[in-house]
Amino acid sequence: MATRTLGIIMNGVTGRMGLNQHLVRSILAIRQQGGVVLPNGDRVMPDPILVGRNAEKIAALAAQYGVARHTTDLSAALKNPNDTVFFDAATTQMRADLVTQAIEAGKHIYCEKPVADSLDKAIAIAKLAKQKGVKNGVVQDKLFLPGLRKIAMLRDAGFFGRMLSVRGEFGYWVFEGDWGQPAQRPSWNYKKAEGGGIILDMLCHWRYVLDNLFGKVQAVSCLGATHIGSRVDESGKTYTADTDDAAYATFQLEGGVIAHINSSWATRLRREDLVTFQVDGTHGSAVAGLTRCVTQARVNTPRPVWNPDVAQTMKFNEQWEEVPDNVTYENGFKIQWEDFIRHVVAGTPWKYDLVEGAKGVQLAELGLKSWAERRWLDVPALSI
Ligand SMILES: NC(=O)c1ccc[n+]([C@@H]2O[C@H](COP(=O)([O-])OP(=O)(O)OC[C@H]3O[C@@H](n4cnc5c(N)ncnc54)[C@H](O)[C@@H]3O)[C@@H](O)[C@H]2O)c1
Asked: Is 0.70 topped by the overall pTM?
């Protein structure tokens, strides 16, 4: 069986996501396993070129991970006909411009979410990609989490009966940085002018999670908040955190399912995981975290009694049954990369394109508008 190489221009690999999930856990892991297997048995070996602003930093990174090619000149990289894919995990605000340049240069596109910082830009790049006939994709990693894959399996097996509601809890405490512990997330996330805000960050995730697992999102009501107004940045400087760090959002889905998801960087965990989803259906309920998922069928549903005079004797958390790990769940970012590479090289089916990415930005914009105008908003179909 033949092995061919696929040249990939990787931008933003000095960042958290670009380095950990995309370079190390995906592209380098794929190289280590001997490439991506195509349906005909041939293999594709990704051959990345790392792009960064700082020559020394990007050279050091390339040396550390044994990547042969690196550059600070993106325009020159885009001119190399052997590098047919452009990937971006750098700052959200520059994404649409960079993706536009890459599409104009005839490259296939793969990028982080949000695909742009406004719906107009998101639609423009999706349209341009279609016009130029380049293949394109956006990271939709949450769908590949073992916990949510188990939810999808339960749904496909008919476990829930008629789905009624979904309750999501996302978040954890992000340290302010001013009392002996540095913040554990980049400061741009808390500045409006730099593309920050939890609504833009998380509602684009919730769009594809809800659309693909529970029903197409039809309407949204969202209340944002800036709970922590002052934080300390990477260099120890105090700044005003002027954008939303929590979002309390309700969604109406096709089929009558009601979803409510709280997203917060100002909450402390007393639950199984950093994100949990509880799905209630007529025949059963399930609660999924990042990896685990527990279920309770209608016949196993206990009958607790409301009695404030007596301490609770039932241990509710122990009344659920674990969905076993019968299959191996690989890193979701890597699985999606492999699917995208097969799509680019062998034309295999692919649904997570820039149009899907634009839907995420659309929901984030509507969430922000709903908050500003204090009202429910319908989610119209996008025409791209
Ligand atoms: N899929 C997910 O779960 C997920 C999670 C976190 C972040 N993200 C997305 O990934 C992207 C990066 O987020 P992060 O948390 O890794 O941020 P980060 O701050 O760690 O990394 C940002 C990257 O962008 C580069 N960059 C910043 N400003 C730049 C400029 N002016 N010119 C060129 N490059 C510049 C930095 O050098 C760095 O490589 C964002 O779009 C974010 O929304 C996705």
From this structure: yes
